[in-house]
Amino acid sequence: MELFWYIVLMTMLAVYVILDGYDFGAGIIHLFFAKEEKDKKAITNAIGPFWDANEVWLIAAGGVLFFAFPTLYASSFSGFYLPLIMILWLLIFRAIGLELRGQIHNKMWEAIWDKAFGIASLLLALFFGVALGNVVRGVNLGNVVNGVSTQEAHYFFLPLWNPTFSPQAEQLGIIDWFTLLLGIIGVVALTIHGANWIIFKTNSGLNEKLKKVVFNLNIVMVVLVVISLLVWHVIEPKPFHNFLDKPWLFIFPIITFTGLFGLFKVKTFKKHGMGFLFSSLFLFGGLTSTVASIFPKVLPSTNTVNPDLTLYNMAAHGYGLGVGVYWFIIAIILVITYFTIQYRVFKGKMDDVGYGEH
Amino acid sequence: MEDMLFYDRMQFAFTITFHYLFPQLTMGLSLLIVFFKGKYLKTKIDKYNDAAKFWMKIFALNFAMGVVTGIPMEFQFGTNWAKFSELTGGIIGQTLAMEGMFSFFLESSFLGLFLFGEKLLGHKLHFVTGFLVFLGSWASGYLIIATHSWMQYPVGYEVLENGKFILNNFGALFSNPWLLPSYLHNQAASLVTSSFVVAAVGAFYLLNNKHSDFGKLFVKTGVVFGLISSLIVAFPTGDWAAKNVAEHQPVTFAAMEGIFETEEGGSEIVLIGQPNMLEKKLDNKIAVPNILSFLTYQDWNAEIKGLNEFDESVHPTNVPGLYYSYHIMVGLGTIFIGLMLLAAVQLYRKKLYKTKWILWALMFMLPFPYIANTTGWYTAELGRQPWLVYNLLRTADGASPTVSSGNTLFTLLGFIGLYLLLGLLFLMLAGKIINKGPQLEKH
Lengths: 358, 443
Ligand code: HDD
Ligand code: HEM
Ligand code: HEM
What we know:
A: two-stranded antiparallel ribbon, B: 14 helices, globular, metal-binding (chain A), transmembrane helix (chain A)
């Protein structure tokens, strides 16, 4: 039962990253590359009708986490208190940047909300990467000082950084050079992903340029992936042992690399959706490989006093998890139906949707 | 430690109060928009379609505010109330997760179609998407109130030795006796807000002699729905909610009503008076004898226990706040019924659009349903104190153990700043839409 909900949760998070990821990416492209009004319009048209429903994957995943793994929800949400609240603030700015811009036709007004949308998207991509970094690196569970827990074994609190920015310090921070590396990977990956979405869903004048951007960023991405694989040893002495133990897990890295190398062909794709497909594979593979590498841990402990949090010691009670399956299956069928309808209605290029016009 | 709890509570109270300003309009207005759109489908009179379109603009803006302020609510259980989440997540997580899966997806997927899909879908399907948005928002209200009802009146649970609450009966969450009255009352109240908003905008147009056709339509619709919903809010639903409190939380009931001493031969209903917590009595009281006993138990002489009979440790923590909240809600409810009755009589006599003073009153009434809704929730929440889960888990034991007061105050200040900005922007933009008015489409 725990394993079922773990898979559900991870799948929902992956779907969230793939769907809202293209919104963040589009925001980053909007910030750096969209200079002309018609390109900006094309970008917001391509995500306007979707972003809200995409964001719901985060809320729903939060709900499932709360219900299936209450202890993990309590421990990690209070422990990562500051970055989470900041993510909330950024989500607010992203949303109102998109929704309010078209309400008043005035250059200054539009410029303000363009920046709000773009910068919030950029920072969100960074924060989500950093968050993933924190999860694999682990935290000081129980706030151990000098070998003694100062809190219950599964609680902790992290400040934004510690002065050394080292992932090996006893008192860790949210941001250190390792988590920052993952943050940068997040930004690059989502920028590529967003560019692919724009190429897929619009006929904007930017599209040719964006293909070059994807290609160049993909080179950066390969370098970053190699670096991250090398430094993984620093935080985990045997980072690949899970894969060596269970070779079928290699499916996840294979998906990752298919996505990564497939993207180098971006300039020759006949179908506009291909690029988006490959970057989705890359995101899905990257995320699943990362969590598979620490499985069954969900939040490792960096001290030797308190045990890791695993999916087995964090879960809710059996009866509740069992009845949840029934309503969840009904719900997920409905959700898939909604998304199918939504994407059917807005199929093809979306340049004429008229998002944000009043 | 005490500070920490205080800021956690302030942050929750501030963010939820602000959040609920928006959904109360969302839920009622979606119904009214569906009504306008349905009228159009039936009569093919363009005015109705344009009315639906006009309110959709307000709706879209309001919905966006509801969404951005709703997400912090979902996260705050974990960030600020970690202990509570850990202990009860297996239960309240059910209904909250269901809310995400069943209603937020429904609403948000079809909202995009509703707002941008009219041309692609045609009028019939457009009506259907509107209806689904309405359904989603009401489902959301239902599941949230199911969650909240469990906190007021826990059912279907078992407590383990380590203090964790586990679910042992899923169906009980939905047959909770607290749920139905609470839900119906709340939804009626949300319809009150929306009807009053629609009527106020209509009155504004009539008094300014612009968009008069729409002005009349809005005033009429607002008054009809406003009268019906105001009546339902008081009876049967408000009455039912009060009986529930009297039965299951007698100490809360005594504090709400301002009854300090048990009276032989039946309790009076307090209309005005200030709770004096030093002497445990009501100052400057104006009350009518025996009415409360009758309203609660249909018996003029039924005994209602006064606050002084309960041990102080179970008294609601903020008796005056609770008492005022309740009296403001009920007082406003009475005024709403009175005003809407007058307006409905004039409407029936076909004189309403000329009766200036009623139009002025309708226009200025706009903020008051919001106040009534907010004080209603304060009644429920202050009444539950000092408990998070009634009689089982104290609020003081539910906060996050590792988040210090400095960090909570920091985020609280951040939320205050950000929400003030949101509020200003909302008022400005809604004002602009209203001032511009509905457009007759000429294609
Ligand atoms: C337009 C708003 C409005 C109006 C006019 C009223 N209410 Fe109300 N009331 C609410 C809006 C509201 C609310 C905000 O929607 C609450 C909060 C929790 C809930 O379910 O509904 C509520 C809660 C609430 C509670 C607390 C339930 C609990 O503790 O959970 C009681 C006892 C009443 N109401 C009773 C009344 C009575 C007797 C009214 C007579 C006129 C009345 N309300 C008018
Ligand atoms: C819009 C409606 C609501 C309003 C205006 C509201 C208001 C408040 C207020 C004022 C408090 C602080 C009480 C105090 O500390 O003295 C509070 C606390 C709280 N409420 Fe609500 N509430 C609402 C709905 C809900 C719902 C639906 C839930 C549950 C799903 C909920 C759960 C809580 C929790 C967990 C706390 C914190 C602990 C506490 O102080 O009791 N509230 N709310
Ligand atoms: C602690 C309590 C609450 C939580 C955790 C919460 C959570 C949320 C979230 C996450 C959203 C955004 C959904 C989206 O993206 O579509 C939202 C919106 C909404 N909430 Fe709340 N909410 C709370 C209180 C309430 C209450 C008391 C009601 C009504 C009874 C309510 C009704 C709604 C509705 C109808 C929406 C959608 C419409 C809108 O956004 O305006 N919520 N809420």
